[in-house]
Write a structure and sequence with these properties.
By secondary structure, the protein is of the alpha/beta class. The protein has a single domain, classed as 3-Layer(aba) Sandwich (Rossmann fold). Helices cover 28% and strands 20% of the residues. The chain has six helices and nine strands. Strands 2-1-3-4-9-8-7-5-6 form a nine-stranded mixed beta sheet, with helices on both faces. β1, α1 and β2 form a beta-alpha-beta unit. α3 crosses α4. The longest helix is centred in the first third of the chain and has 17 residues. The radius of gyration is 16 Å and the shape is globular.
């Protein structure tokens, strides 16, 4: 049976799907999963039990109130409170239930915030234009913790080349309880988080769904998610 992999949206429009979600759809399908959209307002009590795994997708900023701060670098016009509530709830449910979850860009930040961690509201040097795919990707290498789920998943050695479009980041001094860093950029920015003891709870700060910008090893992130979903 094909694992059902939920992936999060901001709205129902066709234009939004075409511009922002087609690459996720293809990545899930190519990995052997069935993509299932999740929208703000969906009944998670009814929907979550029907899903075998989840992808928290990239996008706009999370409202700073969710990590106890006032806006200070957050792009408030990109905040969607309905999406915030949806994804924070999904991240907490997946952590508690053992449901496989892959967080991408905004997704890794949601994972940390959901479990009690913080966020750096603005950093420089990791995006041409924040929260968009305008301009070329900011590509750089990351150092990967050798004894980590990420290292085993990518199976690509101690480093990888990634594409980043973010202007916010997980602070090293405020990682949520139960999570640990698994990769770092050359400037020290955390590029991956995971939860030891969980079947598959992994977040990356880059965009592996944009496979054409990266190496083939990035497909392993979706393959591993789908494999964990099959075994769940």
């Amino acid at each position: 049976m094909t694992p059902r992999i939920g992936y999060t949206f901001r709205d129902h429009s066709r234009e939004y799907f075409i511009k922002w979600r087609t690459t996720y759809w293809y990545a899930i399908v190519m990995a052997g999963g069935e993509p299932v959209p999740i929208y703000p307002g969906d009944d998670l009590d009814a929907l979550c039990p029907t899903l075998d795994g989840v992808v928290l997708t990239g996008g706009g900023d999370v409202h700073p109130r969710h990590f106890g701060q006032e806006p200070d670098g957050t792009l408030m016009d990109s905040v969607h409170e309905g999406r915030d509530e949806l994804e924070l709830a999904i991240a907490r449910r997946a952590a508690a239930s053992g449901k496989p979850l892959l967080g991408i860009c905004r997704g890794i930040q949601v994972m940390n915030i959901a479990l009690g961690g913080g966020l750096i509201q603005h950093i420089e040097g990791h995006a041409q234009v924040a929260n968009t795919f305008e301009g070329p990707p900011t590509q750089h290498s990351v150092r990967i913790e050798s004894d980590s789920l990420l290292a085993r998943t990518l199976a690509n050695g101690a480093s990888a080349t990634v594409n980043t479009y973010h202007h916010q980041a997980v602070p090293a001094e405020d990682i949520a309880p139960g999570l640990q860093a698994a990769a770092w950029a050359e400037d020290g920015v955390i590029e991956a988080l995971e939860m030891p003891g969980h079947p598959f709870y992994l977040g990356v700060q880059w965009h592996p769904e944009r496979l054409y910008e990266l190496g083939p090893e990035q497909r392993n992130l979706f393959r591993a998610l789908v494999a964990a979903a099959k075994n769940g």
